[in-house]
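Summary for the funding panel

The consortium committed to producing paired sequence-structure records for every protein in the target list. Below we show the first two records in order, beginning with the earlier of the two.
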Amino acid sequence: MLLTTLIALIGLVVAIVFGKALARRPLPAHIEDDSVHDIMRGRLIVVLSLAGLVGLSFFSSLNAMSYETNALIPRIVRFWLTVALLWYTFHGSVLAYWLTISLFGLGIAVVIPTLVLALSEGNASVAAPLLLFVMVFFLSIMTITFLPSGRAFIRLQQTERRRAARRKKRISKNGKSIENATYPPSPPNLERDLRQEALDTVRNKLFIDPEWSVWDENRLSWAGHRLCQTFSVIGPYESNEMQVLRLSSTVPIIDDLKADPAKISDFLNLTNQVTVGDTLIWNRENGKVESRISCIIHEETFDWRITQFIDLAIIQLVLLEHRVDTFAEVFDGRVMEWSHPVSGERLVPDDMLNVVNDIYQPWGQEPSRFTSEDVFKCVEEWVKSTPLPLFTAGASDTGIAIEVATGPEDTALIQLHSDQTHPTLGSGLLVTIQVRLPESLGSDPLAFSSHLNRLECYEKTNSHQYGAWCSKDGFLAHSYFLPNDEVNEVTRSGITRDAAMGAVNRAIWVASIIDPDFNMGSQDPAMIAYWRTMDQEGFVADA
């Protein structure tokens, strides 16, 4: 009896220690903040419920062994099988979960007739432990089956177990382990390698985990949730007498489109009218819709330009994740969900995808941080000083309008507005271009805008690919939006002038497409000087 009691006490202590350890175990890192408290509460409840089952099994075995000396070994084996079953239930085994429910449910069904008989006979010594037995079993089963927080924790454990199994299978198949994965080392800084530095900067600023990314020397792909965002670097190549790189972000969205082509084109056009920085493209060759944004960088503009690009790229991904189901419904197509070659599907979104709700939308509720006459005066001074064929009537505290010659008799209208809001991001800076197509190109700006978007995506141009071409009010138009940010007013003046210069450069480019014989000379010294004098803070140094 003494030995039995000692073994029982040791088992009880072990159960308490392990239960405490399980209750304190950290949750997976990817659990969303608003779910943490519910999951932790559910975990505590599940641990207490399973501990109750272990305790009841323990005392039942102890009681049986006190008057059945020949049942020592079977009871010990039964007890530890129960512990193993509940252990695997806690760790997400679906088989163990249903065995637990079935066996303990069966135990309740077997005990109830005896309990009813004991109560009818008034035998309290028998009825009391049986009633405790039924209550503990029933409450524990209800907790892990129907209680929302407990069931949520059980589902999380089962999901994590399946992911781990898929991950192990893929690791075995591919012959590599992501636990030991490292990114390709950056080359020694004997000479600055902007290609590698660009991808390293993207990875670090977005906190991209190796578990959810693949990469090589020119490309980095990752899953924020369902969609795959690929950053790629092209170059170096010569542009405006400089060695530059093009850094792009591409997100495939929908394939297998079955909707009417006219409906697809109209919807893409409406969406491109309110774009932030990306362009939606329907590639009819492969039947896919994708989103793209890119910028040109060189050593003098690298540090601030890539920060601006990354901000627009993460907004690109967030808005696409929110809208992709709508796109699939309108296009009657399939969402192009991405599965990592090792980690599989990403079931819980990355925390970075909360950046719009947590940061940009609160900033957007404030007045535009670009509203300042000094900000737009900077643009006016540049327009009046450049030898390019530009004209402005002057700046106000909410914007400026610029006319650019696009032919012997035609002009493009560029407008920068700080008093117009984005439907999702609120206040900021809206940059638009409006061009009237000549009759020789027909009267279909929608078709021509799609053509220009494809050219900007797949051809080498001298402009950053911020925003999209679209058809609006019968005109060929282009727009993109810069949301409120943290930069100071001096830097914001430089960003505004950069946006104006980019719009002028794009207007010159589209003029060369419309009329190849009309060329203002994108190699103008003023333009070259502009790109060369942008410093690391994002403003143009005075000559």
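The next record, for a separate protein in the list, is shown here:
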Amino acid sequence: MSRRGAKSKDMLPKLPAGGLRIVPLGGLGEIGRNMTVFEHAGRLLVVDCGVLFPEEHQPGVDVILPDFTWIRDRLDKIEAIVLTHGHEDHIGGVPYLLRERPDIPLIGSKLTLAFIRAKLKEHRITPKTVEVREGQRLSLGPFDAEFIAVNHSIPDGLAVAIRTAAGLVLHTGDFKMDQFPLDGRLTDLRSFARVAEEGVDLFMVDSTNAEVPGFVTSERELSPAIEAVFRTGPGRVIVSSFASHVHRIQQVLDAAHQYHRKVAFVGRSMVRNMGIARDLGYLTIPKGLVIDLKALNNLPANKVTLVCTGSQGEPMAALSRMASGDHAIRITEGDTVLLASSLIPGNENAIYGVINELTRLGAKVVHKGNAKVHVSGHASAGELSYCYNIVRPANVMPIHGEWRHLRANADLAIRTGVDPGRAIIAEDGSVIDLVGGRATITGTVPAGLVYVDAMTVGGATEDSLKVRRNLAEEGVVTIVAIVDRVTGKLTEKPDFLAHGFEQDDSTFETAVPVIQKVLTTATKEGTDPEQIEALISQAVATWAFRKYRRSPLIIPVIIDA
């Protein structure tokens, strides 16, 4: 099982003539910010450009982008960005890439392009778009792209078969093999098989559920559990879902209509996306079912349904704010909250925290752990094995997953007959060259985490995040000291302004001699005033750690008497 290349970015070899280079800039070793760049005959093709949402140890960060460094000086070589579907982890980074070259064509299905146009409108970007359907082929410079229908937790998902002189790559996007999908749109295994007859040189396969045995439950099997929530809920039903999960929202609307409840959408992204889905015919809403949020106040609680975001515990999403009491909608006894989602790795603590708070406020919380109300949008091990046996690829590169998912997917490929040396476990920034029918890791390129902080790209760094974590966890102490510059004596006891400390008159009492000692020594040695402040900061920091086992930020302010 191939894992790492031997060469660094400074030694990146030239791509052999006729070869195909594949560089994942996000999505490997993580669930999010999916982006892969294909290079052939001097031209580039990008598949997906998404974002990763921050974790608790990344305070103040809005989203995390793929690293564009490797392609930044070659943006003019990009033929197009192919978008496999409309989830944020696949399209959320597009506005930031288009800031650098606004005319890059965006290729995707009808719903995917509608979602990205709405997003780009907020960024004041008018994109160049090309709408495609399954079965369609496009010539994109030296790349020939064929689009294949796949089933996922959003309508209109596409896999893409990329043909070049170097060989054929089949990229699944996110997919599963629901045999009874709500919209009747199956993953097109017949097309997978047809493409396989040509010979798939590299199979890039969704890994999210590679560790999960068997097969994903059909979406249709969820309807009874969802209906039970609406049938038995004594008060309001509050549903939290991805703002793009049209199929799940359709099931909720159908249940609400059946039990004579009115529905209001809550949150900008939910209102926007469901409006788009309705207008394009992907969402069927009975007349009069959806009403304005304010109108719900005039209805009894057992006639009310709210559909909002926050199923992954995102701090600023509607449900999380309801749980914390920071939303106009207040959770009360008798409410039923339905979390229609799976746990995304890394978000477990946030989700369970929201569940606990909702329960404390009196709500009954129904989620995947206690009811059949959600299924994943990603193929399990049984489905992946079927795909490997159908496609029979020469080389495999698992994508879209953490390390454990990638390895489990590679193991499945090997068990179905793929040569272990051709099952490539790559990471963000790995350079994979397909030459002569064999894919190998030949080097690396920069692929770090790029933070968006208050719409500023790259403003936050690991060092600044460390400072933020320190401020949040350890506190801040500002020391205001009035000093006689001639004698170096404190003219009065310093003022200590502390945040993050339980403070009384005695908290900093023993720090005063520490400060006086620094001042006395510095005065004798003629130390520069700015240096004196730095010395006080160091001395008090040492004192704070010894006395309280804390490492607060110390800010001394010296005032001449």
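Regarding this second record: The first strand starts at residue 20 and ends at 26. The radius of gyration is 28 Å.
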